[in-house]
Specification:
Length: 384
């Protein structure tokens, strides 16, 4: 059926009608007094969402652009950094760091497993000369559905004293509790097409005072992504370059919706969706790629046995107009991923699981009792 598509991927995520209508308004001058009021409101609400009094800066970039900005503004060529790598995006931050001439040491884990915080603790404790300038971590690894223990890793960074912690919170911000001030996180990057419930195109970077101090001696080249320009403009309720006016109208509406729902309720909703999805997948006899202990609240990765992941995705899309994400790099064709972050409700999960059951039946998969997945999800919703 035309225009009946349902996004169940980790980004872009579904966009509320209220946000779409806000984006349909006529644009106004981005240097006007009226738009300054919009920026002021956005800045206030972004600080609320980030749970911080630090600067939260808006950039016209993807999440990768926000992370690159978070790296190049606070480091210099040859700086020693630790990069956590247990998935596609941890690997990307290591590549970006090397591209800018940083001395990269990777702390790795098998894809689908969480990073070991103790490994960071040992490296940082051994650095008695305080040469490690930053620890770069993916909080929610989108490629595998794993949530890394950012709080514990960050505590080791704080014990080190000199190192910054730079965080990819692209699929955790707005889905998982990321208390920036309470944990003392230095640089936190995210992207609009995830928990923010708006289309791609905006990136966000939260910057601590400790990070701004590091900025003063950082020597990596930057111009468009020079965060000091964004801070100066944001302090004046403006932007250093032409911003995506209509996308920011959408952000204004989505942040208003999020404030109305409340942080605790947002996080509880995402936990509920995660628990129901995982319960349903278990009831269908499909192996989960990440353990319950390391499960992301944004996405669930499934490694099917006895039925091909890409055939599942194909039938779901062609027959039921539901988009699921595939595996990346060496996991392509081996897993599929169900996104459940942002503008996603209990009903969406039930619809997706029911369609998944029908897909499995069509593909001849017989390792479950029809209705078991929906029943497990419904039971999880009833008990949360």
């Amino acid at each position: 059926m035309e225009d009946k598509n349902m996004l169940m991927i980790p980004g872009p995520t579904p966009v509320p009608e209220k946000v779409l209508l806000a984006m349909a308004k006529h644009p106004i001058g981005h240097r006007s007094g009226d738009f300054s009021k919009v920026i002021a409101e956005l800045t206030e609400n972004l600080k609320w969402l980030h749970q911080t009094h630090n600067d939260v800066l808006m950039l016209t970039v993807s999440g990768t652009g926000a992370m690159e900005a978070g790296i190049i503004n606070f480091l210099s060529p040859g700086d020693r950094v630790l990069v956590g790598n247990n998935g596609k995006f941890g690997d990307r931050w290591a590549k970006i760091s090397r591209a800018f001439g940083l001395q990269v040491e990777e702390i790795t884990a098998e894809w689908g497993k969480a990073l070991n915080p103790q490994a960071f603790g040992e490296k940082l404790a051994a650095d008695t000369q305080k040469q490690i300038k930053a620890v770069i971590i993916t909080h929610s690894e989108t490629s595998t559905g794993v949530l890394n223990d950012l709080e514990t890793i960050n505590q080791y960074v704080k014990n080190h004293g000199k190192s910054l912690i730079i965080v990819d919170a692209v699929t955790s911000l707005g889905a998982t509790n990321v208390p920036i001030d309470a944990w003392g996180l230095d640089v936190v990057a995210s992207g609009s097409q995830k928990g923010y419930m708006i289309p791609p195109g905006l990136g966000f970077v939260s910057v601590s005072q400790k990070a701004w101090k590091a900025y003063e001696t950082a020597k990596l080249p930057k111009f468009y992504l020079d965060l000091k320009k964004y801070k100066k403009a944001t302090d004046e309720n403006s932007s250093p370059f032409t911003p995506p006016v209509n996308l920011m109208y959408g952000l204004q509406a989505s942040l208003q919706m999020m404030r109305s729902e409340g942080l605790d309720n947002i996080f509880a909703r995402h936990r509920r969706l995660t628990q129901a999805t995982r319960a349903a997948i278990k009831a269908l006899g499909l192996p989960l790629f990440a353990s319950d202990e390391a499960a992301s609240n944004a996405i669930t990765a499934v490694a099917p046995i006895g039925v091909e992941a890409e055939k599942i995705r194909s039938v779901m899309k062609k027959r039921y107009d539901i988009a699921l994400a595939g595996g990346q790099d060496h996991l392509k064709g081996k897993i599929f991923r169900i996104g459940h972050l942002g503008f996603v409700s209990d009903r969406d999960i039930l619809a997706a699981i029911a369609s998944l059951e029908a897909t499995l039946i069509e593909l001849g998969y017989e390792s479950f009792s029809p209705g078991a997945g929906v029943a497990a999800a419904a039971s999880a919703f009833a008990n949360v």
